[in-house]
Structure formats: structure tokens, C-alpha cells
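Z., the sequence and structure:
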Amino acid sequence: DYSTTQGRMFFRMMAVFVQWYIENLSAEAIKGKKERARKGLHNNRLPFGYTLEEGNKVAQVVPEEAEVIRKAFQLYATSAYTDRQIAQVLGESGLKTRTGRLWSKDTVRDFLQNEFFFGKVAYRDELHPGQHEPIISRELFDRCQEVRRKHAGSKRSFQNQPKRYYFLQRLIH
């Protein structure tokens, strides 16, 4: 009964315990994820190219998917392909993402920056050796990150196009 002082006090005491429970649960979840990463085990959904077999805690390589990952990294390392172009190449191969969707530039960008593919497990700002088999080498991953830095520093193609003026533009201003 919230109309009485005792009822309001009981409600507030319960709110304090609920708040403590939520904060404690969060701290324990963080501790558990950190420990899994330290042991070299994945924390979230496994990336494309890996699966988890029944009763096994260590991610296993899916050979057909691993070939797609290798191809994407190799193409990107040439510096001749953008994320969008790699998504198109993957789409043209007929292979879709695990959710059955076409590849997007964002999906490609995310996996091209995922350390899991060269055998590491990331948690927050920490990087730990993984127990899983790498799909690519660290050198290939690093080359791709260098290409990404170069792409980030270059101007976009639409920025280099000449400015267009339209006949009615002067009437609007």
C-alpha cells in the first residue's frame, strides 16, 4: 500500500535492492565475458566463417565460408576494391550472409576489421590469443587495415566532381 508511510518505505527499500541486483548482475556479466576472452573463447555471436559444434566451446572453421572471408581480405588488400565493391563480388558469387541477406558494405567493413579472423579474441580494449584456428594471417589483416587508413585519408569521388549550377538556383536565393 503506497498510501502509507510504511508502504512507501517498503517500496523504496525494494527499489534499492533491485538497483543493487541490476548493478551486481552487470558486473558479473562483464567479469564473465572478460574471463572468456582471457581464455581465448568468443563472447558474442560467432562471425561468418565459424561455427560452434555441440559440446565444444572452441569455434570451428566452416571451410566454404572461410574461403569467402579469405577472398574478401585478399581483394581488399590489393587496394583496388572498396567495401561496397567486395559486397557486390560476394553477392555475385551467390553466397549470402548467415541471416540470408545480401552482403552490404557495412557487413564487409565490420568483418574486415574483426581480429577474430587472425586468431585473436577482443574484449573492450583488450586483445587475447584465441583458441580457434585463424582463417587469415596477421600480415594480411594488417595490410587491410593499412589500406583502410589510406582510403580514409583520401577524398571521396563525389567531392572531386565540379560544382553544378542550375538555372533556377539564382531565383531561390
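The chain is about 50% helix and 5% strand. Residues 60 and 79 are 30 Å apart (CA to CA).

Let me know what you think.
H.
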